[in-house]
Structures are given as C-alpha cells and as structure tokens.
Amino acid sequence: MKNDRWSAYGLPVLLFSTGFLDYAWSGGETVKQWGNLLLFLGVLVLIGAVWIQAENKQEDQRAQHASYLALRALETATEGLTETVEPAEQMPVRKADGEDYVGILSISALGLELPVMDEWSYPKLKKVPCRYAGSILTGDLILMAHNYESHFGNLKRLELGDEVLFEDMAGDSFSYQVTAVEALGSGDRAELWAGEWDLTLFTCTPGGASRVVVRCIRWEETAPT
User: CA nearest 217: which of 154, 150, 166, 145?
Assistant: First the structure.
C-alpha cells in the first residue's frame, strides 16, 4: 500500500551521505570544504525528492488510465447480461480483460468513479481499488486502494454525511453515508474489522506509517423516516 520510494532510494542516499560525513570527519576537512560538501548533499537530496515526486505522479497517471480502461471494458463485458455469474450468496463477479470485478465505486464529493477488483494484490492495486475483505451482501465490505490522487489519496477530505455509492455487477446499487474518518496505525489490521460498519474504505498515508480509514453505513439506515 505504500506509494513512495524513500525505502528504495532515499535510504541509499542517506547512507551515501553518511559515508561522506565520515570521510570528512576523518580527513579534517576545512570549513570551506564542509560547506561544499553540505551543498552537494543538499542538491543530491533535492534531485532525489524531485525524481521521486515525478515517478509518483507518473504512477498516478498510469493508475488513472488503467481505471478508465477497466470501466470501459466492464461496460462491454456487461452488455446484454441479465444473470449473475456467481451463486446467490456471493457477490456477483464480471470478468473484463482477464480480471474479476465486483462493482463500481462512486464518490461524488471526490469526483471518483472506480472499478473494484474482486481480490487484491500489489500489482492489481497499481491499477484499481480492490476488495480487501467482506461483502456487500453481508454488510461488511472493506475496500482498499493506493493513495494515488486518482484513487483513495483524498479520502481524508471526505466529510460526515457524504454519499458513497457502490453498484455491483448485477446492476444493484447500494448507497452509503460517511459516518467516520479516522487514522489507524499500519499494523492495526484488527481495527479494520472493529465496529458495525457496512462499508470501509482505506489507504495508506505517504510513507505507509498510518492508514486513512473511512467508515460508512447504508443510507437506508441513516435516512429519516
């Protein structure tokens, strides 16, 4: 779920920099040489940060394009279909471009319309959000996605009462209302299941230190009678 390259590239830069500092201490460099060294290290870190940001932006754009293609493929795959392809007790699944999808998630407050794959993996998360666990039919669906701007990167901006829609592959629509936005530690997996929530959305923060979690309940349960 991490969407940064610090562990892959920032750490080697840090170690490389530390090596230079050790050399400077042992060699008794002058103040001027220290200044040149620190300037060099600053430029190196700046270049690395710009490169990482550019790479993340490219990944975001690729994910946005992949989601768009998946939506179009699902439109073609579901034309003329009137029956679900899974047993009644399971969420209907549609296959498009060799992948299984369980529905389409829409969040108007964030301008999102995203296909959702049935099972998650890191390669799949680079394309679209995925079902982490649970089901629409049992009222405990949990969806996960990367923190791309085009996926779940703006979950923290959702407000209480915002509407979240999920259309399954049988064409049935489910409406939800955001009732909580919280932060969990990256290792608090059990907390994802805590509480009586019909729908949970989550993503990692940049760096992966914590998770942004959005809790929702069915709109029918919250609407006034």
Answer: 166
Three-state secondary-structure class, residue 201 = strand
Hey, what are 163's tokens? 């509407």
Per DSSP, 62 falls in state H
- Across the range 155-176, mean pLDDT stands at 95
In eight-state DSSP terms, residue 24 is H
Domain ranges for the chain, please list them. Answer: 65-222
Examine the pLDDT at 47 and tell me if it is beyond 90: no
CB 164 within 8 A of CB 181: no
Which pLDDT belongs to residue 202? Answer: 97
Q: Which CATH architecture has domain 65-222?
A: Beta Barrel (2.40)
In the predicted structure, residue 137 carries a pLDDT above the cut 70: yes
Q: What is the pTM of this model?
A: 0.72
Torsions phi, psi for 209 (to 5 deg): -70, -30
Least Cα distance to 132 among 34, 183, 199 occurs for: 199
